[in-house]
Amino acid sequence: QLQASGGGLVQAGGSLRLSCAASGRTFSSYVMGWFRQAPGKEREFVATIFWSGGRIDYADSVKGRFTISRDNAKNAVYLQMNSLKPEDTAVYYCAAGGKPYSLEYGYWGQGTLVTVSS
């Protein structure tokens, strides 16, 4: 129900835009977020955006470089990643709350690989 795309290989300092298309239900009332998992590491939080877009939070490691946004009309969430660093290399997953207005994630996409070369 969540399909992430937009990953790829980019040089350090470059940019990528990840997209997550939702299907099967309308996610306009769901919290949406991005997580990532680097090789050999646990999955970590990247960014989240509340249902109306009124609240957005970022991991300290990406603040000022990444921007999360959503388009409820398209049932989609995006992650604009600028000034990429090699340590941003990971599989990026989009996620949605398990139910409307819940802060617990219950839906996960399949992931898209981002590789940042130095």
Provide a short characterization of the protein structure.
Helix content is 0%, strand content 51%.
Main beta sheet: strand number and arrangement? Answer: 7 strands, mixed
Strand content: over 45%
Helix content: under 10%
Helix-strand topology string: EEEEEEEEEEE
Structural class: mainly beta
The tally of beta strands, per DSSP, is: 11
Mean pLDDT: 95
Quaternary structure classification:
single chain
Give the C-alpha Rg: 13 Å
Instruction: Give the N-to-C terminal Cα separation.
Output: 34 Å
The total count of helices amounts to 0
Uncertain residue segments? none
Cα shape:
globular
Feature tags:
four-stranded antiparallel sheet; 118 residues; mainly beta; 51% strand
Can you describe this structure?
The strands form two sheets. Strands 2, 4, 5, 6, 9, 10 and 11 form a seven-stranded mixed beta sheet that branches. A four-stranded antiparallel beta sheet has the order 1-3-8-7, with no helix packed on it. The chain is built from no helices and eleven strands. It is mostly beta strands. 0% of the residues lie in helices and 51% in strands. Strand 5 and strand 6 form a beta hairpin.
Write the SSE topology.
Elements (H helix, E strand, L loop, with lengths): L1 E4 L2 E4 L4 E7 L9 E6 L6 E6 L6 E3 L7 E6 L4 E6 L8 E8 L7 E4 L3 E6 L1
Parallel strand pairs: 2-11
Antiparallel strand pairs: 1-3, 3-8, 4-5, 4-9, 5-6, 7-8, 9-10, 9-11
